[in-house]
């Protein structure tokens, strides 16, 4: 694992000193006002947009090796915000800007390579880029690398260095770093759980206008049944700061009796549901479908649930479309049966609401759901492993729900390759399989759930995502 002398000394150099020492006389010192002018032309800031002129200005700046222009045009071409996508050219430009020492380009390229956004995943180079950007006090790079070093998923855990990076990022003005720190302590991810520390970071972020931490903290209090009154107040504060998803959380808590218990809690549902709709929070319709599916405050009906979700998906609600596809793929064991053909048709119908990445994940889980024999398990598992950039904790949970045999087949294969499993590759949770999975679980940064059951979907998902990221 890469570890520079700089990180062993834990970020003691200021950005200006490093900047002067590493890029003296470079293209970074080119006229950034020209790049700003080009961006205004592209987006139409204060006037009508003139993207052709804006691009021409960027191209002219790129021709004289202006790193800022290379980075801006590169990002435009990678993501296709205004111009037609050209990922190859965009990555070349972004790479040139990063090599020239542009810290924002180093962060952007590092993040792309860390996640595999463009299909190119290189976690070793990503770390080098994020370290280089952090040397120049690029606060986003500090936050991203700091979080990874605390979690110990992609890289070996370096808790002290990771926390130092996150705290320095926060001190330099990165509100998101405060939210990340609060979330780590709230959930005990990489660090011991400490609600007091979590709340301190969230309150600090709230004073700067970010209520997302309060929303997370309030939700944790609610599901933990810790002080319903404080929970409600905190979630309402979060919503007032613009985190209107808190209204959905409040509606859900009211529905299940977590806001004062029984009839008192349920009576609050409609009010919070209406606030969520006024804020155009799409997940409220998924919540309403759950009420219909499980018969909460109304008669349970599978067909009505499918009808509600279909109507909202037809109206362009992405959350409803995703929930509908998953429900048809998996069924609910009560009043909605698994219907893979209907799930496949729903995916085709609502594909335009989803990202290409979403569609690819759904296609793989639908293939997994239809697999019944070891040879098919192997084919589907191979296809999944060929696309490691798609693997995430959420995808791992969906895959396990769609077909646990596929998930176990993948883990058996990986553990066999590592010399930790000597049994058959069959996708079944045999005794030897579970022993090997348990040992792998014990090596996770967060292994608190291992002794409960390694057949939990969240444990399997952590193993799938962690092993994939480590490749």
From TrEMBL:
Q: Which SUPFAM superfamilies match?
A: HCP-like (SSF81901)
Q: Does the keyword Signal apply?
A: yes
What Gene3D superfamilies would the database entry show?
Tetratricopeptide repeat domain
Q: Which InterPro entries match?
A: Sel1-like (IPR006597), Sel1_AlgK (IPR050767), TPR-like_helical_dom_sf (IPR011990)
Tell me the first and last residues of the signal peptide.
Answer: 1-20
Q: Which Pfam families match?
A: Sel1
Q: Which UniProt keywords apply?
A: Signal
- PANTHER family annotated for this entry? ERAD-ASSOCIATED E3 UBIQUITIN-PROTEIN LIGASE COMPONENT HRD3, SEL-1-LIKE PROTEIN
Question: What is this protein identified as?
Answer: TPR repeat
